[in-house]
């Protein structure tokens, strides 16, 4: 039987303290090895909260499954901001480039429903609407409309 420990950790900065240490201690695994493996796998998400699952087998071997941060966290990280707009209809807190939104869509590839890059970019653009972020100098909804009409087909 496999035991599963789930936690939300800081990318590349997990420690033996809460929430992991107390959850892993009773399982009998080498906590230092688990933490090192988690930090290795999450270093690309430095400064972000990352969902992690530790799968512990009966023989005390383990496997680490790393989720990806929410799209909104990736957008904020890409822009270097800590909060979205309080009133996203009126206030804009940043402006993503086409390359940045494509990068986010690629990072979330497995979690998004879109069949192709264009569809995934539209999903990320939807998150931009809700946190007050412009894309390519345009309001997110206008960008979505332009993508749907094919104005950006050469970029995908």
Short description:
This protein has helices at residues 20-24, 31-42, 71-79, 98-107, 117-131, 140-148, and strands at 3-10, 49-56, 62-66, 94-96, 133-135. It is α+β, with helices and mostly antiparallel strands and 156 residues long.
What does it look like?
By secondary structure, the chain is an alpha+beta fold. It folds into 2 domains: 3-66, Ribosomal protein L11, N-terminal domain (2-Layer Sandwich); 71-155, Ribosomal protein L11/L12, C-terminal domain (Arc Repressor Mutant, subunit A, Orthogonal Bundle), CATH 1.10.10. The chain is 38% helix and 17% strand. The protein contains 6 helices and 5 strands, in the order E-H-H-E-E-H-E-H-H-E-H. Helix 3 (71-79) runs antiparallel to helix 4 (98-107), helix 4 (98-107) crosses helix 5 (117-131) and helix 5 packs antiparallel against helix 6. The longest helix is centred in the C-terminal third of the chain and has 15 residues, at 117-131. It is elongated. The mean pLDDT is 90.
Order of SSEs, N→C?
EHHEEHEHHEH
CATH H-tier superfamily of the largest domain: Ribosomal protein L11/L12, C-terminal domain
Number of β-strand runs: 5
Main pleated-sheet profile: 3 strands, antiparallel
Cα distance spanning the termini = 44 Å
Q: Counting H and I runs of at least 4 residues, what is the number of helices?
A: 6
Proportion of β residues? 15-25%
Averaging pLDDT over every residue, what do you get? Answer: 90
What structural class is derived from the secondary structure elements? alpha+beta
